[in-house]
Design a protein that fits this description.
219 residues, two-stranded antiparallel sheet, 4% strand
């Protein structure tokens, strides 16, 4: 692997910083879209809004006073029955052979929590890596070149960009896993590259990189 100087590291940092901005935007909470509210008024032919009156010649159904009393009484009785059921604490019986609703909710919540945690660690590790490279590794490269792998940072940025378009689903989870592994590879290669540095000045950088890696892989 040929040695590289500050220019190669700056290029890698630029790609990683771009990936970080993409990850931060993808991890930001998005408010759920509210469904469109149905309109309770009809629009007349002239473009105005309001109730539509019957046209001349149309037959209009006229309801006798008290004609809706029986359906109304049935609705009240049904509502009272539901209310009594809720007060008694009896849940509605689950569908035969199907999983219990609370189990599905719990399973979905645990999975979402795990994905959120993995995403948060990825964002934090990317941010911390850029900081360490800029503040600690770049001054070292001005003294002695190191073997670097800029293509890994390009791939990392591309994976993050693709993941941000998915938002959710199995493809999002696959992209998240690939981004996780790619950043892990970037950090591990940097640690190996520091082994050829001719002095002990690399030790603080290596310690910082190992800490980032440890936090990234935490469960």
């Amino acid at each position: 692997m040929p040695m590289a100087g500050p220019a190669a590291l700056l290029a890698s940092i630029g790609h990683q910083a771009g990936a970080f901005r993409t990850l931060r935007a993808a991890a930001a909470p998005h408010p759920p879209r509210s469904p469109p509210q149905p309109s309770h008024t009809k629009t007349s032919g002239t473009g105005g809004s309001g109730p539509v009156w019957g046209s001349p010649g149309e037959e209009t159904e006229v309801r006798e006073p008290g004609g809706d009393r029986e359906p109304e009484e049935e609705r009240k009785a049904a509502g009272k029955s539901r209310k009594e059921g809720e007060e008694s604490g009896d849940p509605s019986p689950p569908s035969p052979g199907g999983p219990r609703p609370e189990r599905l909710v719990r399973r979905g919540t645990l999975r979402e929590t795990a994905l959120h945690g993995k995403m948060s660690r990825l964002v934090e590790a990317t941010s911390r890596l850029v900081q360490v490279e800029e503040s600690l590794l770049l001054p070292l490269l001005q003294q002695h070149p190191l073997p670097l792998h800029p293509k890994d940072s390009i791939e990392f940025r591309n994976i993050c960009s693709h993941m941000a378009l998915q938002r959710e689903g199995q493809q999002f989870e696959r992209d998240l896993h690939e981004a996780h592994q790619c950043l892990k590879t970037i950090i591990e290669k940097l640690i190996c590259s520091l082994a050829v540095f001719p002095s002990d000045l690399y030790i603080p950088v290596r310690s910082a990189l190992r800490q980032i890696l440890q936090n990234l892989l935490a469960v």
